[in-house]
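Posting this for the archive.
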Amino acid sequence: SVSENGPCQLTNAAQTDPILDPYSWDNCFNVLYLCPPIGVGFSYGSLSSPNQNITTAFVTTGA
């Protein structure tokens, strides 16, 4: 979630302009989020799908 890990925060529900979060993770660390392909880890996909179909599904989802 942007509010937990991003560099900005909203101080209340009515505020529309974000402010910099002084306690953000990116002040001390770099964070890289990886999305594994279908069929790996907790992702879902048909086990009977050939690798080409899995690759096509992964690329077309914009992951």
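Helices lie at 2-5, 51-60. The mean pLDDT is 69.
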